């Protein structure tokens, strides 16, 4: 078997794939899927986009990531720190999804907001554990492969959740669709039970007093900020996904405006987009290997920014399945490439003493600005500018992230050593 293929079949890489499935499912159910549900229930566009503020919970997950790093769970502690938290967070995700299934946005929008926040809280906690488990299971040489497999899993999990919810909702209602999707939380739980604790886990100290608790919150951020060029790197993390995020969270509104049916959305957005994303992940892994970290990330940032223009073209063309396929294909190809290269870079930045907290901070910071703008301004911007100009604007706001990364390359701030402690 070729060495390149063997790398994808190693236990840690396969574990990253199944962990990704469980990470992608809850996110999809409060992203495009909930947007479609609200739009079909006749909720106003500005209200629908305001629901994206629930994703800010994901951006706040660093606030309780230290709990996952240091707090032992009663009864489950003998299974290990990561495994016990995988089981608890997985159960919480399943319960939150069922709760979201049982609310009706048409009669109680407030309850729907709380239910969506509940899914975001549980999903964000699950992500904290999943990301830490993945990084601590992978050797430094496996970070690129592991990021790719994680993205494969994440995409499959999100596609399964979105497609199942759409197809089942069209026949038996949204409640049944959401309840069925709750089972997608199981793969990560099974990984933990089968493989046990990750081999590279580093235990710093037990949280036994108020002082050590406060230290466990401060130390991960303090260690990162002490690195050379840390503020510029953090600025890049904050801004590089702004354009991509505000565009992605409004696609379903465009599809509803252009009168695409659930089946058309399932075939083109979910189905065709799925294969394009898988192709992008493969290309991203190839670019990472052939071009190296710096040039691979830079290329992916440019592609992700430009891909938003394809939806401006779709909005101008109107209802066209060929235009939809082209826009979805380009956007998912670019996202797949960026998913591998950028996630591998963020993973390499983590100090193994603070894996959960630092990756939670980096991954949360990477989309907080875009999600805030989507929730507060995207709806009225669409109503004011129209979809064409809105997607052109989303491309423009993506450019600062590209320029900052170029500056980081010039200053030598992108290279990450191949060891357990990343320093800039």
Structure in words:
With 424 residues, the chain is mostly helical. The chain has one domain (3-410): Growth Hormone, Chain: A. It is built from 21 helices and no strands. The protein is globular and about 55 Å long. The two termini are 36 Å apart. The model is unreliable at 417-424 (pLDDT under 50).
The CATH class name reads: Mainly Alpha
The count of domains is: 1
First-last Cα distance:
36 Å
Q: What spatial form do the alpha-carbon principal axes imply?
A: globular
- Tell me the Rg in angstroms: 20 Å
Helix percent reads: over 70%
The CATH architecture name reads Up-down Bundle
What's the short version?
By secondary structure, this protein is mainly α. It has helices at 3-8, 11-29, 32-40, 45-50, 56-59, 62-70, 81-102, 109-137, 143-172, 174-181, 186-195, 210-225, 230-239, 242-248, 251-257, 262-307, 309-317, 321-348, 355-385, 387-396, 399-410.
Give the SSE layout:
Blueprint: H1 3-8, H2 11-29, H3 32-40, H4 45-50, H5 56-59, H6 62-70, H7 81-102, H8 109-137, H9 143-172, H10 174-181, H11 186-195, H12 210-225, H13 230-239, H14 242-248, H15 251-257, H16 262-307, H17 309-317, H18 321-348, H19 355-385, H20 387-396, H21 399-410
